[in-house]
């Protein structure tokens, strides 16, 4: 007999609210005001009642808040936001647009709770709203960002940051990084054969989780023109090319190194499914050019699409690909587009998780 349970088959997602002084609560409630989110997901916000009530009010949304203690209690009904109240904030007890140790500690505790629920398999994935690194450090939590927090709390030594834009459109670009939050000098030093091989493997794994059965991987060079036979550097010959050849011999569909000034154009044109970038800005800049659009007259963003996924964890973590946007926090005008992308990606990965997680 078929089950009549309306929750059956939908993925349970924990959405960590992010920095209360930023736009996290706002973009979370705005995203959950979209009925189609509930077709595939049962979203649960981990945050504070005071901040969520604020967000619903200043966004002028007709939504109910339903406090729960455990994800199993979630109703998963459109029009009602299920949330776990961490009781860390009092009404008016924090200030929007302002860096503070209070908000840094609060958002850290939301993340801890989300990770714990994912490790306990009480949720299928964690979707994170933005945090502020300065606030995080003021509170004594010395991490470069979400990626490093998730890696430490899940005891994951090998991981990589994947960015994607346009995953709900025809203009897709996916990028994964050999290094991220380090100086440019250190980033060059981190381009080693073993690490490049590991990121190629993670690129293949990531795209399979996103639904690509046979991913085509491009590897960017580090130097201009991929060093032009040693004229502009030696990393391609010493580290990158040997890594690519080793992974080809293992059966991966990988090509490169390809000059950084053309590889992203080729990926956007459909030649590749994902690009392995050598350092933070090499991958982030093309991603944000494709996903972010600014009105030249007002200086306001009219589109902010894109996601951040930590690949290699024993749990699923997706995120928005933007910051706390203090300048517009508390005003009801932040775009939920990236949050919707992150929710969509979390569901996709959760649907493929059992098939590929062992790989």
Description:
Helix 1 (about 25-30) packs across helix 3 (about 50-60) and helix 8 (about 195-210) crosses helix 9 (about 235-250). The chain folds into two domains: about 1-155 and about 315-335, Isopropylmalate Dehydrogenase; about 160-310, Isopropylmalate Dehydrogenase (3-Layer(aba) Sandwich). The strands form two sheets. A twelve-stranded mixed sheet has the order 3-4-2-1-5-14-13-6-7-10-8-9, with helices on both faces. It is an alpha/beta fold and about 350 residues long. It has twelve helices and 14 strands. The protein has helices at about 25-30, 35-40, 50-60, 100-120, 135-140, 145-155, 185-190, 195-210, 235-250, 260-270, 280-290, 335-355, and strands spanning about 10-15, 40-45, 65-70, 80-85, 125-130, 160-165, 175, 215-220, 255-260, 275, 290-295, 300-305, 305-310, 315-320.
Can you say what the CATH homologous superfamily of the largest domain is? Isopropylmalate Dehydrogenase
User: Total helix count?
Assistant: 12
Shape descriptor: globular
Mean pLDDT score, rounded?
91
Which range does the strand content fall in? 15-25%
Q: What is the CA-CA span between the terminal residues?
A: 34 Å
Largest sheet: 12 strands, mixed
Strand tally, please? Answer: 14
Low-confidence stretches: none
Task: Say what the CATH topology of the largest domain is.
Answer: Isopropylmalate Dehydrogenase
Radius of gyration: 20 Å
The strand order across the widest sheet is 3-4-2-1-5-14-13-6-7-10-8-9
Number of domains: 2
